[in-house]
Design a protein that fits this description.
The protein has 367 residues and is an alpha/beta fold. It folds into two domains: 148 residues, Rossmann fold; 195 residues, 2-Layer Sandwich (Dihydrodipicolinate Reductase, domain 2), CATH 3.30.360.10. It has ten helices and 17 strands. The chain has a nine-stranded mixed β-sheet. A six-stranded parallel β-sheet has the order 3-2-1-4-5-6, with helices on both faces. Helix 1 packs across helix 9 and helix 5 runs antiparallel to helix 10. The longest helix is centred in the last third of the chain and has 20 residues. The radius of gyration is 21 Å and the shape is globular.
Length: 367
C-alpha cells in the first residue's frame, strides 16, 4: 500500500461518528484531519472527548461551521452523519467542492433528493457511498459462496429479517429520530434501511416488482411537526414467487436476525447488522431431514456453522474499519465505483415505496 493517506473530515458531532472516529484510525489508509461542528468550541469538546479514549497520532483540528470544512484544501473525503433532513445540502456542497462523500443512512428523505445528491457526485467525479457497515464484512463473500453453491439453499424462495431495539423514554422524548423534519422516516429509515438492503443484497440487487408496507405504530417528540414510524413491517415481491418480509422497530428489544430459505435448506444469521462480540463472524446452514417410518416421524437437524475470522468491533478487522478502508482505497485509486451509489438508490426506492404503501392502507405499490 502507498504511504499516501486519504484525508478525512467528519461533518458533525453525532454519536455514530464516535464509532467511525476509531474506524478511520484503524483503517491503515486514512487519517482524520478535522471535525466540524456549528461552533469551533463544540468541535473541540467533541475531539477532546474522543481523543481521550481513542487517540489519533495527530489530534484532529476543530472547525466552526460546516461550510468551512467543505472548503478546506487539506481534506479529501467527508463523512456526513448529519440528520437526514439536513444531509442533501451538505452532500451536494461537498461534491461541488471536489470532496468524496460517505453519507450516513438513510441517505435522503426520498429518492428524488438522493438522485440529486448522486448526480452532484457524478458531475464532480467524486465517490458516493452510504455508511452501511455489514456490506464490507468478510462474512458476506462467504455467505454468497454458500448461496451460490446450488446445494446448501437451492433456489431462494423466502427472505425474512428483523432489526429492532427498545428505545428508552428519553429517546422517544428527545432524540432527533423522533422529529419529523430531522428524521422523517423514523425506524424505517434508521433500521429498515438495513432490512431492505440485506434482502436486495441476497437477490443480487434485482429489484422487487412490487411492495407493501404497514405502519404498525408512530409517534413524535413534543416539538415534532408530525409523527414518525415507531414500528413498521414490509413485504417485497420479486419474480419467480420470491418474497422478502421485514420488521423494524424502536419498541421491540434488540434483535437483528435474518433467514434465507430455499428449496434445499436455509441459512440463519443471528446478527446480520452488528456482529455479536467476538473474534469471528458467522452464520448457520441447515439442511434438515424429515422422514416417516410408519408410526415414527423423524426430524433431523443437519446444521453447520460457517465462520470467518473477523472481530466484531474496535479492531482493524471489523466491518466498520473495512468500510472506511474500502472507501479510502477508492479515493486513493482515483477511480469512482458506480456500484455504491446504485445500491443506495435502490434501497431508497424500495423504502419510499414501502412508506407510500403504508400511508395508503397497505396497497401494493409497483417499483
Amino acid at each position: 500500500m502507498s504511504n499516501k493517506l486519504c484525508r478525512w473530515g467528519i461533518l458533525g458531532s453525532s454519536g455514530i461518528a464516535r464509532k467511525n472516529w476509531q474506524s478511520i484510525r484503524n483503517s491503515g489508509n486514512g487519517e482524520l484531519v478535522a471535525v466540524a461542528s456549528r461552533s469551533e468550541e463544540r468541535a473541540l469538546e467533541y475531539i477532546r472527548e474522543n481523543q481521550a479514549q481513542v487517540p489519533h497520532p495527530v489530534e484532529p483540528r476543530p472547525i466552526g461551521g460546516y461550510q468551512n470544512m467543505i472548503e478546506s484544501e487539506d481534506i479529501d473525503a467527508i463523512y456526513i452523519p448529519l440528520p437526514t433532513g439536513l444531509r442533501k445540502e451538505y452532500v451536494i456542497a461537498a461534491a461541488r467542492a471536489g470532496k468524496h462523500v460517505m453519507c450516513e443512512k438513510p441517505c435522503g428523505t426520498n429518492a428524488d433528493d438522493l438522485r440529486e445528491m448522486i448526480a452532484a457526485c457524478e458531475e464532480n467525479g467524486v465517490q458516493f457511498m452510504d455508511g452501511v457497515m455489514y456490506l464490507h464484512s468478510d462474512r458476506l463473500p462467504a455467505l454468497r459462496e454458500v448461496l451460490d453453491d446450488g446445494d446448501s439453499v437451492g433456489d431462494i424462495k423466502r427472505i425474512m429479517n428483523q432489526f429492532s431495539f427498545r428505545a428508552p423514554d428519553d429517546f422517544l422524548q428527545e432524540n432527533i429520530r423522533m422529529h419529523s423534519e430531522l428524521e422523517p422516516l423514523g425506524c424505517l429509515g434508521d433500521l429498515g434501511w438495513y432490512n431492505i438492503g440485506f434482502s436486495l443484497w441476497v437477490m443480487n440487487y434485482t429489484m422487487p416488482q412490487k411492495v407493501t408496507g404497514r405502519m404498525i405504530s408512530q409517534s413524535g417528540r413534543s416539538d415534532s411537526p408530525g409523527s414518525v414510524p415507531l414500528q413498521f413491517s414490509g413485504e417485497l415481491i420479486f419474480d419467480n414467487n420470491v418474497t422478502a418480509g421485514f420488521y423494524c422497530s424502536f419498541e421491540t428489544e434488540h434483535q437483528q436476525w435474518a433467514n434465507i430459505s430455499g428449496t434445499k435448506g436455509y441459512i440463519q444469521l443471528r446478527d446480520f447488522v452488528l456482529p455479536f462480540y467476538g473474534s469471528t463472524s458467522a452464520f448457520e446452514v441447515n439442511n434438515a431431514v424429515f422422514s416417516i417410518d410408519k408410526c415414527r416421524l423423524h426430524m433431523e437437524d443437519h446444521r453447520r456453522t460457517v465462520s470467518v475470522p473477523e472481530y466484531s468491533d474496535s479492531h482493524a478487522t471489523s466491518q466498520e474499519t473495512k468500510l472506511f478502508r474500502d472507501f479510502g482505497d477508492l479515493v486513493l485509486s482515483g477511480k469512482v465505483d458506480a456500484h455504491w451509489p446504485e445500491v443506495s438508490l435502490k434501497t431508497q426506492l424500495v423504502m419510499d415505496a414501502c412508506l407510500k404503501s403504508a400511508n395508503n392502507g397497505g396497497v401494493e405499490v409497483e417499483i
